[in-house]
Amino acid sequence: MEAGEERGDPLPRLRRHLRQGAELRVLPLQPPLQGGGTAEESTAVEKKKKPSPRLNFHSAFWILASIAVTYYFDFLKSVKETIQADSWWFASGSCLLAACLSVAFYCIIYLEWYRGIEDYDVRYPILIPVSTATFIAAAICFNVALWPVWSFMTPLLLFIQFMGVVMLVSLLG
To answer: What is the pLDDT of residues 98-109, one digit of tens each?
Structure first.
């Protein structure tokens, strides 16, 4: 046992979690088992497979599309003007998005990394539906707030921006 684990300190668990993740990325590919292997052996081989590269055509497409939307539709200027117009819808969407991100950070950083609970969706089943509902409500508020700017293009532009941010974040982690 490492020092600190005896006291229930969660820091060694985080170190072990990160170390195991690094070991899984380094393991070489092995050929699939032929015949007589057990289910545990086959799942162990599946876990050792090399992960797909982070930057692929799909990710690059969404990131570039998001950059193009930001540039050609003056996205940031339009959002700034909407904020300055004291849009109640935009303020509501921002608060709901902050609540959604707070739940997501709580799940990922606190529950999974710090406490070592990898199946937080099983132990706390309400977190994922709450996060999803607040995100959908935030998306509706942002669409209503920005509808006077881009009309029927608003949902498409916001979806492209959302996908670009998701793909950019996936490159980081």
So the answer is: 999 999 999 989
> In the block, which residue shows the tokens 């706390």?
124
- Give the rounded distance of the alpha carbon of 17 from its chain centre: 19
Q: How far apart are CA 88 and CA 10, in angstroms?
A: 42
pTM metric for this prediction:
0.68
CB 39 within 8 A of CB 47: no
Q: Are 105 and 157 in contact (CB under 8 A)?
A: no
Residues 6+ apart with CB under 8 A from 83: 90
- Asked if residues 109 and 64 have their Cβ atoms less than 8 Å apart, the reply is no
Q: Under 8 Å CB-to-CB from 17, ≥6 apart: which residues?
A: 112, 113, 116
